[in-house]
Amino acid sequence: MSRLFGEMRQIGIVVRDIEAALDHWVRVCGVGPWFYTDKLAVTEFSYRGVKHDDLHVSIALANSGDIQLELIQQRCQTPSMYRRFLDAGHEGMQHWSSWPVDYDDRLKQALERGYRIGQQGDSVRGRFVYLLQESHPGTVIEMADMTDARRRIFDGVREAAVGWDGSDPIRRAWPT
Fold first, then answer.
1. What is the widest separation between alpha-carbon atoms in the chain?
2. Which of 76, 81, 166, 169 is most exposed, with the fewest beta carbons within 10 Å of its own?
3. Fold observed for domain 10-163
4. What integer pLDDT is reported at residue 120 of this predicted model?
5. CA-to-CA distance for 160 and 166, rounded, in angstroms?
6. What pLDDT, on the 0 to 100 scale, is given for residue 136?
7. Domain locations in the chain?
């Protein structure tokens, strides 16, 4: 557990081809079911302090035990930490995420310790922030505000993985 950010709850994996990644995680790794959306409903987004209205990312979520995996494919040229990661020749783990209920306090502490905001946004599920720390690929830290809406979805993803029998591996609606 991070003393500053809390429990590691998710590993964010940036990929160039989310369909191929889903196939690999289901067929080779046996992880699922995956909850997929072609365009994440982001209501606000900024990268390095500049607002952008046209972010198009496809994501898929699944759990392996208590750790959630998030596959992310950016489908646009909007500047982002995902795009920067791919442009640097990387693919794979780009960040790990905590989901604090005391989001504002934890963010304030991180900024006081010298972290900088790389990108941040809002969605129907709540706010999120990626703290700029890319000294090594995969070490970006995301915090997602643990709202009731986010908790319901993330609990549903985790519960669906318990005893999953391999059927219906890719689901195109969030759990309810």
1. 47
2. 166
3. 2,3-Dihydroxybiphenyl 1,2-Dioxygenase; domain 1 (3.10.180)
4. 98
5. 11
6. 63
7. 10-163
- The pLDDT score that the predictor gives to residue 4 is 81
Helices H / strands E in the chain, number of each? 4, 11
Pairing label, strands 140-144, 92-98: parallel
Residue whose pair of structure tokens reads 């502490």 in the numeric block: 109
10-residue stretch averages of pLDDT, the chain, 176 residues long:
85 98 98 97 96 96 97 97 94 94 94 93 95 72 95 97 97 92
- CA 161 to each of CA 65, 91, 116, 154: distance values in angstroms, whole numbers, following the listed order: 8, 25, 35, 11
d(CA 86, CA 66): 27
Tokens, residue 48: 């390095």
Of residues 123, 131, 158, 134, the one with CA closest to residue 37:
123
Q: Is the CB of residue 51 less than 8 Å from the CB of residue 44?
A: yes
